[in-house]
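Hey all, sorry for the wall of text incoming. These are the two entities for the joint prediction.
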Amino acid sequence: MMRAMKYGSLAALALLAGAALAPAANAAGGHVHIERQTWSFGGFTGQFDTAQLQRGFQIYKDVCSACHGLKRVRFRNLVEPGGPEFPEEAVKALAHEWPNKIVDGPNDEGKMFEREPKLFDPMIGAFKNDNEARAAQNGALPPDLSLIAKARNVEYTGTWWAHPFSMLRDIATGYQEGGADYLYALLTGYHEAPADVKLSDGMSYNAAFPGHQIAMPAPLAKDNFVKYQDGTGSLDQNARDVSAFLAWAADPSLNARKSLGWLVLLYLVVTTGLLYVGKKRIWASIPH
Amino acid sequence: MEHTSSYEPKSAFAKWWDDRLPVARLMHGQFVDFPTPRNLNYLWTFGGILTFCLVAQIVTGIVLAMHYQPSAHEAFNSVEAIRRDVNFGWLLRNFHAVGASMFFIAVYIHIFRGLYYGSYKAPREVLWILGVIIFLIMMATAFMGYALPWGQMSFWGVTVITNLFSSLNEIIPGVGTAIVEWLWGGYSVSGTTLNRFFALHYLLPFVLFGIVVLHIWALHVAGQNNPTGLDIKTKSDAVPMFPFAVAKDAVGLFAFLILFAWFVFYLPDYLGHADNYIEANPLVTPPHIVPEWYFLPFYAILRAIPSKLGGVIAMFSAIAVLIFVPWLDTSRVRSAKYRPLYKWFFWLLVISAVSLGYLGAKPAEGAYVTWSRIFTAYYFAHFLIVMPVLGLIETPTKLPKSISASVLRGGSGTPEGAAAAPETR
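and here's what came out:
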């Protein structure tokens, strides 16, 4: 009976921890299945790939930054460990030529002025405010990308009975890369619209986007992608790299978190084991 | 349970102090040589785990409050600053956010343990009711805490839940609206609402702490229940809390911390919602407004009832009904171990609660609503029909003579356990 009770409560805990935690549907209008990608920063031992973040930053700078800001990332973050780790001098030069100036002031005459960003300044976008962005973008607002990889997720599209198992698998493997998976699917998801889909004016068809009609025109394409410094590049590689970069932008402490995490877990597992042995010895003479 | 502390001051200073404020004597009596049933299983370690959760939430919360700014303009930015710029801010913030979920996982196990072993029955009614009050205040605290990051789900969660009170307009026109505006401090959810939620979110944990002290006090008056549901009758039924119960609590706590740390370090956002990384925007409603997972069973009950007022009443009744459990259960046997029928209904309740949690995360349409209604019906039937009726018709299996008899081979119940008892160490 005690065994049954133990297993029963374990099963209940598993279900409680699983079923009840259903990450809710994020997207309106139909379930879109998003393929999971392999990421260097996924899972238990995951860490960002510095070279990939550097390439991803290049995509952001050359393509995304035309419309999207990155206001929660500061230039100094590009130098710090756990990120793209560019040399400080290179980032200073980057800030120097960054097209979007910082509004500062008031100066001694009481006037606001524009100046070049410094290392401690945020990487603001091309538009001064949302209204200006909408005016320039056919009424659509290009969101700031600082948190986009955390503000998006993939939706479970399988059968209801497999859902708790899928959740338990995600918990056991530490799956947190839904945002990057979604971004990769979005960037590679531009296609010709199927015959039965009527697109509104200025909209594009995207297989990954909820509702499939997206205001952002394809930023990358099979024949229009960014070439890296070594001359290589492809739509797929661009999309992968910039998704990884945005995952870092949304979670710059991931490397520190995951490398501290296994030490904490190791400590806890060993201590639990020692405490269990101690408890066994203390209770050895007491039937219970 | 009468229990006198065996504390003996070891030094002249301790003696001097003990004559004036015998706090060491009190602690010794309650937490060192306090008699605990010898047959407690690991489900009884959740009291200690919950105490840890509360203290951890208070400590991390106070430090977070040093960096957080409770204003509609700065709340979201300040949480991001904590994640990005405060030293180990990401750890504090993950610990506090995941900690809320861990608190609820532990409290649900604790509540179901009480329901399985009949821990609410005389003389533990007040202990149980204090527990229900703690649960209710925990929910209020967690709800207001979730508002503080001021993301989309914070904002819209607050909007939906506070709006529930407007259903009172169906009883007395105008009253619901007045209450909602009073809660908001305005005519819509705004920075004013955020400010008062922050003030209350900081206050309530200390109220909680006070009630937890009463909860533990009541526990130490009645003594702990145990898997047999029998009272401690002889000395051999119990072992001193230290080192026995403490050693077991420590194992339970550290095992729980492994799960805790797994989420803090590897799944910090799994229990939350992606939309809460979008800053609150009163002009954009998320397609799907879902509360945190620990509210989902109650959310499912709310939506299972076709009328708004009815749903609100059902949701609050789902918690209020717990207060009456000590009197709704008519069986004289505490532990489900000896109740062959109740055991099955207990697991049916667990399945209903977990299923309601699942359904609460689904859109309120089609089969989801039908199933929500079925499980809601069972949830209430369990307390209002099954508990009273079962006690009258069920024949319990044979109870052991005593706690010792239940754990000693042969189960003769003679005090041979006394030889194994540790009181003379």
